[in-house]
Amino acid sequence: MIRRILATEETGSVLFIRLMVGGIFLSEGLQKFIYPSILGGGRFLSIGFPLPYFSAYFDGVLQVICAVLVLLGLFTRFAVIPLLVITIFSLVAIQSRVLVDQGLFPMLHAARTDWCMLLGTCYLLLKGGGRWSLDRNWFS
């Protein structure tokens, strides 16, 4: 059963989606540590998260680990599940406030990366790591 989940298609173009999703999540995860006051715990505090510093660091670690797995194409389908949850939470918790405070088009502008990440993670969940992935080399 696990081997079937880890198996992936021969499609080579999946690499581009993996590079986009993995690269952006890696960058965002690292920035939670590099700029903690504006993108890490300080941001989580301003949004009203419970345990904002713990939540931000946990989120950052999760993003970095999952992003590296996506970039390698290793356990791709498993790695995108936490990233999918993070993206949905961002759309609901953060972008809904922008919608209420500023309106539809400012929210769509602010959420454009979240929508790309949502679609990219869904694509990887369906397709797997693709031709140039460790999943393909090890599990197919």
SSE blueprint:
Blueprint: H1 2-6, H2 14-34, H3 36-39, H4 41-47, H5 52-72, H6 76-102, H7 104-110, H8 112-127, H9 134-139
Helix pairs in contact: 2-5, 2-8, 4-5, 5-6, 6-7, 6-8
Write up this protein:
It is globular, with a radius of gyration of 16 Å. The longest helix has 27 residues, at 76-102. The chain is built from nine helices and no strands. 81% of the residues lie in helices and 0% in strands. It has helices spanning 2-6, 14-34, 36-39, 41-47, 52-72, 76-102, 104-110, 112-127, 134-139. The model has no long low-confidence stretch (mean pLDDT 93). The protein is an all-alpha fold.
Give a quick summary of the entry.
The chain is mostly helical and 140 residues long. It is 81% helix and 0% strand.
Main traits of this protein?
140 residues; 9 helices; mainly alpha
- Number of helices in the DSSP assignment: 9
What is the helix fraction of residues, given as a range?
over 70%
Q: How widely separated are the two ends?
A: 13 Å
Q: Could you describe the largest sheet, including whether it forms a barrel?
A: none
Strand content: under 5%
**Outline, from the CA principal axes?**
globular
Q: Please report the total strand number as a whole number.
A: 0
Computed CA radius of gyration, to the nearest angstrom: 16 Å
Low-confidence runs of at least 5 consecutive residues: none
Structural class: mainly alpha
Average pLDDT reading? 93
Strand/helix succession:
HHHHHHHHH
